[in-house]
Amino acid sequence: MTAAERTEIERLARRVRGHCLRMTHRGRSGHVGSMLSIAEIMAVLYTRVLRVDPAHPRAPDRDRFILSKGHAGGAVYAVLGELGFFPQEWFQGYYRDGGRLMGHISHHVPGVEFSTGSLGHGLPVAVGMALAARHARRQHRIICLMSDGDCNEGSTWEALLFAAQHKLDNLTVIVDYNRIQALGMSKDVLDLEPFATKLQACHWAVKEVDGHDVAALDAALAVLPFETGKPSWLLARTVKGKGVSWMENTVACHYGSVTDEELARALAEIGAE
Ligand SMILES: Cc1ncc(C[n+]2csc(CCOP(=O)(O)OP(=O)(O)O)c2C)c(N)n1
Question: Which CATH class is domain 3-270?
């Protein structure tokens, strides 16, 4: 990645954060911390990794992206609107009566593959898509973005065992590993550590990365799969609420958004354009 490309992707991540802050503020909704956590991951995926086309959102050979942590759908809408999958005016109606953008991610929005919200649903569906692509001899890849809360669900562990057994190397998981859930720290709710070791023991190819470093994310995802014959798992270390000082690493930012008084300050802190 050149320095100019890096700057552009970082700018996109800042715009994603800005849209998320404004959407959740206008809609008086929550989960802004969960969205701020994945801004760089969204920006890198949609500019450098996913083979998708806003003009042909249902093209048969498109890569499939599934957001399993569906409560952070605003961050996906932000990047899809930036790329032109739908008009940015739709942001105005996020989480509001008559709006097109539902709080939890919905497949009624162009570019969204699957509706989620109940944790633990994304990976089982992604595994099914990967198996179907294999049977149909299709070349598209399936990428699933999960949270550490998602990884507490039993359905996730059944799906990841199945993916390894069937050597689904067309499947990649990224975990937004911010270590905070809705009401507490992951280590207190249901600890996943030693996470990478467990995944390797389950026959996944695992990498770890700073989930806010766009160059590192790009390098980690440049060649997929990480290992032929194994599904790929990227543990992205992130900060919940990233970019807004009073939200970073707090549990409160899960169900929060910014107040009228805080909006301008938050936009200034993230360097919104
Ligand atoms: C099956 C299920 N149980 C409970 C919830 C309520 N809930 C919403 S988000 C969340 C946890 C949030 O933490 P995490 O999944 O790690 O997401 P992030 O920190 O990235 O926002 C919970 C328990 C849910 N959506 N689905």
Answer: alpha beta
